[in-house]
Design brief:
310 residues; 11 helices; alpha/beta; seven-stranded parallel β-sheet; 39% helix; Rossmann fold
Length: 310
């Protein structure tokens, strides 16, 4: 297979995809408008191209000659995300792309459940499916790398607090972004995964106190769990983006994220838990535990350049 176009390459998720594609010996076209999209990290066989999800000619250039496209749902969507996906799908179809791999960045139900974020994710998945390009979707439930963001890491490093809006008893199969990328890469050579919509998570189910314990052991000092409100979490997340957050999106995002996490805490089901045994039988990968992932992170350089959020 030739090269893979990775949209959102300068985000934390896109960087993991570029990293793992390069490690697998794949050629990559990384889509980013940043001058230094990888915050100093360097990869072989990576071409950097600027594109705009609201500009069809630039999307055509982004996917021209690509055998596959990786697309991750952006958190900030100043325009209709479903129409944006339709544009990417049309460009991929016209360019003869052989495989689309979509990461909606969350668990997605198979049918609407009345929660706007989840229901809109279904519409996004369906918009890609309508393109007619062979499609594989990985619905990753929760990312370990969230703990490295500017809305989580400073609390951990500076205050010894793991701050998250999960109620007590809400367990989660945290997965690292490099493993999400490895699932996406596995789909490239698996025609049997055409049309698959697969929920993925990490190899273990952790309660908030378990995460705090891993962080405490890794940092060598106590880290306690602070169950913040959905509103506190939303405010911290929006603040982490700094000046890059569009002012017009601030209030809708604050409201939407708070509603989303309140729903997750109050739902009769757990959207962060997944049975990985059948998934790993279908796609055999060795997944990283939270302890293994935490041990390879740099928890001391709080001023280093890094993506602010996802």
């Amino acid at each position: 297979m030739g090269f893979v176009t990775v949209f959102g390459a300068s985000g934390r998720q896109g960087m993991a995809q570029v990293r793992q594609l390069a490690k697998a010996g794949r050629r990559v076209r990384a889509i980013s408008r940043r001058a230094d999209p990888f915050y100093g990290e360097r990869f072989a066989n990576v071409e950097i191209v600027a594109a705009d999800l609201d500009d069809e000619p630039s999307l055509a250039r982004a996917v021209e000659g690509a055998d596959a496209v990786f697309f991750t749902r952006p958190l900030i969507q100043p325009s209709d995300p479903v129409e944006r996906i339709r544009r990417v799908g049309r460009a991929a179809k016209a360019a003869g792309v052989k495989r689309l791999v979509f990461n909606p960045s969350l668990w997605v139900p198979d049918a609407p459940i009345g929660q706007p974020t989840y229901d809109y994710a279904i519409a996004m998945e369906n918009a890609f499916a309508e393109s007619g390009v062979p499609l594989t979707i990985f619905r990753a439930v929760l990312f370990m790398d969230n703990l490295l963001t500017n809305w989580a890491r400073p609390f951990i490093v500076n205050e010894g607090r793991y701050v998250y809006p999960h109620r007590a008893g809400l367990a989660a199969n945290w997965i690292c972004l490099d493993d999400v990328a490895r699932f996406m890469i596995a789909a490239l050579d698996r025609p049997d995964l055409d049309g698959a919509r697969i929920v993925i998570g990490g190899p273990e189910r952790l309660y908030p106190e378990d995460v705090a314990r891993v962080l405490s052991d890794t940092l060598g000092r106590p880290v306690r769990y602070y169950p913040c409100t959905a509103e506190e979490f939303s405010a911290n997340l929006v603040k982490a983006f700094g000046e890059g957050f569009p002012p017009s999106m601030r209030e809708p995002t604050l409201k939407g994220i708070a509603q989303f996490y309140r729903f997750n805490n109050e739902a009769s089901f757990n959207p962060f838990a997944v049975d990985m045994e059948p998934v790993l039988k279908r796609i055999p990968l060795k997944l990283e535990t939270m302890r293994e992932w935490a041990a390879r992170q740099n928890w001391s350089d709080t001023d280093g350049a890094r993506p602010p959020a996802g």
